[in-house]
Amino acid sequence: MFGQDANLGINLSDYASIKSGAYHKLLKAYYENVPDDDKKTDSSSKKNTQTTQKEKVEELTRVENAADDVKDAADALLTQGNKSVFHKVEKTGADGKTTLGYDTDAIYKAVDKFVSSYNTMIDRGGDSENERVLKTTLSAVQNTKKNEDALNSIGIMIGSDNKLLIDADKFKAADMDTVKSLFNKTASFGYQTSANASMLSFYAERAASQASTYGANGTYTYNYQSGNLYDTGI
Fold first, then answer.
1. Cβ pair 194, 136 in contact under 8 A
2. What is the 3-state secondary structure (H, E, C) of the chain?
3. pLDDT averaged over consecutive 10-residue blocks of the chain (234 residues)?
4. Is 77:190 a contact under the CB 8 Å cutoff?
5. Cα separation, 125 vs 171, whole angstroms
6. Pairing of strands 156-158, 164-166
7. 114 and 194 in contact (C-beta within 8 Å)?
8. CA nearest 183: which of 151, 141, 158?
9. Nearest CA among 72, 212, 52, 207 for reference residue 135
10. pLDDT at res. 86
11. Whose CA is closest to 205, among 63, 75, 49, 74?
């Protein structure tokens, strides 16, 4: 309808009208002639729009927080050196001999926290209406499925809902070198999940910040696309 700046996408005619106050005058003149019932309807519609926007931002914030929790849990497992949960400690056997070995209970606790955080992220990301959030959640699910056999070997199963289940006894009896290879190495399952969580947090935060942009034409524009991407892509 009006010309736009090719580089910035700014509607110069609308911008000039807003800056000069013409939009305000037109809106004021319009609403002075609108029947009371119409005013009430518009007010109610605006309130509903604001409520919906608030709910969408809150949903995206929950996704962002869940993704951050996964990143923290994964990064804790990726820590190297003396502070690593995989740093071997002295253990005294039944025969009284002291050897170096993994602290299995500490490793289990760290992995269990990762599993719990991962499940929350999949729940929240999979319920989102934002396309990039859905695609990144799907990427995390697909990455997990690629590692299904290795995860099964240490007592971590993938449920029908794509969430993880950890068998404490089987996990503690598993080869901790295998666990370490899955969670403590570059390009490992844990590393890739941390990367996915970082991207998911970024997209959720950005979508939340853009969720209620008020356009020059007086309408709200949304950064959402509804669909069944997450359901159909798995």
1. no
2. CCCECCCCCCEHHHHHHHHHCHHHHHHHHHHHCCCHHHHHHHHHHHHHHHHHHHHHHHHHHHHHHHHHHHHHHHHHHHCCHHHCCCCCEEEECCCCCEEEECCHHHHHHHHHHHHHHHHHHHHHHHCCCCHHHHHHHHHHHHHHHHCHHHHHHCCEEECCCCCEEECHHHHHHCCHHHHHHHHCCCCCHHHHHHHHHHHHHHHHHHHHHHCCEECCCCCEECCCCCCCHHHHCC
3. 38 43 48 52 54 86 98 98 94 82 97 98 95 96 98 98 98 98 97 97 93 50 44 47
4. yes
5. 27
6. antiparallel
7. no
8. 151
9. 207
10. 98
11. 63
How many residues are listed for the chain in this entry? 234
Which amino acid appears at position 181 of this protein?
Answer: S
Amino acid letter for position 2: F
Q: Give the span between the Cα atoms of 131 and 207, in whole angstroms.
A: 10
Q: Which two tokens stand for residue 210?
A: 């853009």
CA distance 95 to 39: 85
Which residue matches tokens 């949903």?
A: 59
Contact indicator for 164, 115 with CB cutoff of 8 Å? yes
Q: Are 210 and 197 in contact (CB under 8 A)?
A: no
Q: Which amino acid is at 111?
A: V
Per-residue pLDDT at 20: 47
Query: CB neighbours (10 Å) of residue 164?
Result: 18
